[in-house]
Amino acid sequence: MARPRSQPRLASLASLAVTAALLLAASHAETASYPYQFSHVAVTGGGYITGLVGHPTEANLLYARTDIGGAYRWSEPDNKWIALTDFVSQADSNLLGTEAIALDPTDPARVYLAQGRYLASNASAFFASADRGASFAVHPAPFPMGSNELGRNNGERLAVNPFAAHQLWFGSRTQGLWRSDDYAATWTNVTTLPDAFANTMGIYFVLFDAARNGTVYLGGSTPGGLYVSHDGGASWAALPGQPTAWDSATLAAGHPPYSDGPQPMKAVLAPDGNTLYVTYADYPGPYGAQYGYVYKYATRGRTNSSSSSSSSSSSSPPPLWTNITPGTNNNSFPPPYEPQAFPGGGFCGISLDLSDPTGQTLVVTSLDRDPGPALDSLYLSRDGGATWTDIAQLSSPSGTGGYWGHPIAQAKLANGTAVPWLSFDWGDEWGGYGAPSPIYGLAKFGWWMTALLMDPSRPGHVLYGTGATIWATDNIFAAAAAATTTQSVAWYIQAQGIEETYVETMISPSSGPAHLLSGFGDINGMRHDDLFVPQPMFALPAFSNLDSMDWAGQLPSLVARVGDCGLNFSVYGACGQGAYSTDSGANWTMFAHCAPGINETTTDDGVIVIDAAGDVFVWSTLLAQQANGPWASVDGGATWAAPAGDLTAQTAFLAADKVQPATFYACESGTVYVSTDGGQSYNATPPASSGLPAGLQCATPVVNFHKAGELWLALGARGLYHSDDFGSTWTEVAPGLQANYFSVGKAAPARRDETAVALFLWGTVASAGPHAVDGLYRSDDGGATWTRVNDDAHQYGGPNLILGDPRVYGRVYIGTAGRGIVFGDIAGPASASGSVANVAGTQGI
Ligand SMILES: *[C@@H]1O[C@H](CO)[C@@H](O)[C@H](O)[C@H]1NC(C)=O
Ligand SMILES: *[C@@H]1O[C@H](CO)[C@@H](O)[C@H](O)[C@H]1NC(C)=O
Ligand SMILES: *[C@@H]1O[C@H](CO)[C@@H](O)[C@H](O)[C@H]1NC(C)=O
Ligand SMILES: *[C@@H]1O[C@H](CO)[C@@H](O)[C@H](O)[C@H]1NC(C)=O
Ligand SMILES: *[C@@H]1O[C@H](CO)[C@@H](O)[C@H](O)[C@H]1NC(C)=O
Ligand SMILES: *[C@@H]1O[C@H](CO)[C@@H](O)[C@H](O)[C@H]1NC(C)=O
Ligand SMILES: *[C@@H]1O[C@H](CO)[C@@H](O)[C@H](O)[C@H]1NC(C)=O
Ligand SMILES: *[C@@H]1O[C@H](CO)[C@@H](O)[C@H](O)[C@H]1NC(C)=O
Ligand SMILES: *[C@@H]1O[C@H](CO)[C@@H](O)[C@H](O)[C@H]1NC(C)=O
Predict the structure, then answer these.
(1) Which of 178, 189, 229 gets mutated to test ligand 4 (max ligand atoms within 8 A of its CB)?
(2) Which neighbouring-strand residues pair with 92?
(3) Taking a C-beta distance cutoff of 8 angstroms, is the pair 65, 453 a contact?
(4) Ligand 7 lined by 599 (C-beta under 6 Å)
(5) Using CA atoms, how far apart are residues 512 and 558, in angstroms rounded to an integer?
(6) Which stretches are tagged as biased composition: Polar residues (predicted)?
(7) Per-residue pLDDT band at 386 (split at 50, 70, 90)
(8) CA 575–ligand 9 middle distance (angstroms)
(9) Cα(112) to centroid of ligand 6, in Å?
């Protein structure tokens, strides 16, 4: 995750005015300010959906949370999820993960988010909205949160008291139970709770009994961790008779459980408050669970209110606790796949159908029954857990051998738009990530299916999240009525609008079928022929992380990529960690050999660049032990040679000239290096004579795709530097720039110079005055004047990288650390009062 840079020093207003006047006089054409439109590049999911919640009374009011990419609200009219947390700034990027969502059952307009990615950061907050998340009050929280930590699959930790809507409760990870009496603005510690939460996961869920004022349940991450209060939290009691030990028949020989007894994961309460359903596992999840149960608890004691699967006769009341674990005691149909490979998994996801007033219709999911066979299942019961339908089995084509899945041809939105990248392959072809199905043509039914929702207002509409997307059906009940046991439930993808990839690299070649090729964490990369339509994943080799990509400046159809593939292709005479394509990324050829030191055990596979003519690949491995410069190949990756000359490190900061063949630039330990012989040797440019500041922190040189020898270095707080002579000499573009991220794109139409480019900078411009905010800026005149491109509502937690488009004036791609790829396009006519010399102009929107 990108770290926020230090803030710039304030220049004095006097010196700023002088500077601005000088630059204005010198500039040819001011940078015009335009309204901008921001869109997301459609991948559709791409990461772990941690939770789904639905409002109990308002139709179609659904929310989703993600571990690193914030929260979303479903918009039925827009037919997509709407991101709610894009206003989070780079400085606040820890607030881009959602630990919990709470809805006010008495007021559909109110929604609360608990925000904070990592426990190590003390930046955590409650976002409180009275307009369905269109705007939020941000209230710092007095304890850390961990939306991307272990146990993020459980919840919800946050709840609104249905009898007092101003009151919220939050089960924290490290500081016990907290209460707010002012709509999540301020919080007090509820110290009445016995300390049962020693294992750092804390309290997973808070559940109010909507039928009884003052009754609230808590689930803590420990055996015996279920508590109830009947007096609004003044006193607490452990639920009597709750399961605290493993049934030895459950445990597999040689595989001890991680916990001494079953630990509560999630729970739901029937609308009448009489039945509590609880899922259990031996590990917090989302990975690692080996064992688990599903139980129900008769909250009012031994009543006659519920049916039971127990063996007791129908005349005697049901027990307090009933083990309703699917797949046991012949209680599921079809029966479990045999033999089940270890581990059988725990249970986590659970959701109750509020349209069933008896509270006996529910779904649950198993957790970490992986790598199979069988894989994880989703189970439906309409009799309070007495019997279950194994929906995953019934949804799969026949003959999967336990590897439940959806035919990839059915991975489509409800309106037919395909989501083809979900067709991961497994086995020999895949690099190690656990998502792909081993069955060709199948998308895994799911893994990490912990976000599960029976839509409160649409009976039969069920959604479940996976580690990568959301699947939905309009009629889960079709399974029970089905005459056939194969594919008796129709599923579609309902994740459109959610973008939660971690972007590692992007390129925008100057010609070819696609303006954008992406490289992601976890899901390889894609060629985005249409930015609004999900695309297939790159073909083999499959990377679990795509680290670096480049295109040949004068042969844009030639592209190359390197990344993390945990497979050894040496036996096939190929390198699984690097490949090139001569058709813009449609078909790929693995390098015959990897650069020395790169193999299936390396997880960061370095930087690849291509010279302008497409004759030379240069691959920097980043390996500290290699005492030579980046490796060069002139034979398409068959052999790799170390360069002679001054550069003796596998630098992270490498670029190829996009116009002059055989020309490369590197920056290492504060020195710029240039090769004009195809990476066979590099010469250092001494900083003293170059004009660069001494002791600079290196950055990747950014080249002008129209002009040989023109490049920029974005040096953070040290500013933005420009060279027009192949890096020999440098000048500061303008004083007062904080240049954290930088790129170039197509020049403004008015520019007469055919080699000109537009400049994009993420940072601050003219660090004084009220407009000097961290943001995305564009300059059309080489940096003399700038205008802000984004606004405070479009910050996305800051970028991992930005990229101008060489073909579309004004367009800039923002690669985020959890919100996918966003791009900004000019959306309207220029404003006359637009930019100010070297001062942030009016906001784009
Ligand atoms: C399908 O839905 C998606 C998401 O709302 C939308 O982008 C796309 O245009 C729709 N396609 C059709 C054919 O309506
Ligand atoms: C947050 O952590 C930083 C670094 O450890 C510390 O300097 C700061 O005082 C902390 N802030 C709060 C509000 O605890
Ligand atoms: C709920 O209980 C509290 C505490 O006894 C009481 O103050 C409040 O008025 C009750 N609210 C409702 C709606 O019954
Ligand atoms: C909050 O209360 C719990 C006991 O329930 C205690 O362990 C914790 O230290 C308290 N935290 C703060 C910040 O007061
Ligand atoms: C028990 O069943 C009777 C008859 O259906 C009903 O009137 C009564 O309310 C039930 N008791 C409870 C506690 O649910
Ligand atoms: C399992 O349940 C089915 C359906 O209720 C029943 O037909 C079958 O006899 C049961 N099998 C066993 C071994 O109890
Ligand atoms: C990959 O396979 C080749 C050929 O079998 C072998 O020589 C090499 O040691 C393997 N690499 C690793 C890292 O095991
Ligand atoms: C190249 O890719 C295209 C599009 O994916 C495919 O139709 C074609 O068969 C591929 N050609 C080769 C030679 O693999
Ligand atoms: C794989 O790469 C690592 C890191 O460079 C290296 O230590 C190891 O020796 C390599 N293994 C083989 C078999 O080349």
Answers:
(1) 189
(2) none
(3) no
(4) yes
(5) 10
(6) 322-332
(7) very high
(8) 13
(9) 46
Residue 316 confidence (pLDDT) above 50: yes
Tell me which residue has its CA closest to atom 9 in ligand 9: 597
Q: What is the pLDDT of residue 829?
A: 82
Q: 420, 426 in Cβ contact below 8 A?
A: no
> Alpha-carbon distance 608 to 513, whole Å?
22
User: Could you tell me which of 417, 519, 454, 91 has the C-alpha nearest to residue 270?
Assistant: 454
Ligand nearest to the CA of 125: 2
DSSP string, 279-337: EEESS-SSS------EEEEETTSS-SSS---SSS-TTSPPPSEEE--TTSTT-EESPPP
Atom of ligand 9 nearest to the CA of 621: 5
Return the residue whose CA atom lies nearest to atom 2 of ligand 1. 415
State the Cα–Cα distance between residues 65 and 83, nearest whole angstrom. 10
Q: How far is CA 664 from the centre of its chain?
A: 33
Place of tokens 């597999």: 252
Q: Is the pLDDT of residue 27 over 80?
A: no
Query: Are 24 and 31 a contacting pair, CB within 8 Å?
Result: no
Taking the C-alpha atoms of residue 496 and residue 78, their distance in angstroms, rounded to an integer, is: 10
CA gap 215, 217 in Å, rounded: 7
Cβ–Cβ contacts within 10 Å for residue 604, how many?
17
Atom of ligand 1 nearest to the CA of 532: 7
Place of tokens 């399961």: 243
- Please tell me the distance from the alpha carbon of residue 758 to that of residue 131, in angstroms, as a whole number: 38
Give the chain's domains with CATH numbers: 16-41+501-844 (2.130.10.10), 49-117+130-146+153-493 (2.130.10.10)
Reference 48, options 73, 61, 66, 30; nearest CA is 66
Q: Annotate 682-729 with DSSP letters as a single string.
A: EEEE-HHHHTPPTTPPP---EE-TTSTT-EEEE-BTT-EEEESSTTSS
Tell me the whole-structure pTM to 2 decimals. Answer: 0.91
Say whether the peptide bond before residue 438 is cis (omega within 30 degrees of 0): no
pLDDT at 840: 34
Percent of all residues in the chain with a pLDDT value above 90, rounded to a whole number:
81
Distance 306 CA to ligand 5 centre (A): 10
Q: How many CB atoms lie within 10 A of CB 442?
A: 25
Counting ligands in written order, the one closest to the CA of 538 is 8
Which is catalytic among the residues 86, 390, 522, 774? 522
pLDDT of residue 17: 36
Highest mean pLDDT among 6-15, 51-60, 481-490: 51-60
Please give the number of the atom of ligand 5 that sits closest to the Cα of 300. Answer: 13
What three-state secondary structure class fits 505? strand
More confident call, 123 vs 312: 123
Instruction: Please state, in angstroms and rounded to a whole number, the distance separating the CA atoms of residues 152 and 752.
Output: 54
**CA 585 – ligand 8 centroid, Å:** 10
Per the prediction, the chain carries an average pLDDT of: 90
Please report the atom of ligand 4 found closest to the CA of residue 192.
5
Q: What DSSP string runs through 363-394? A: EEEEE---S-SS---EEEESSTTSSEEEHHHH
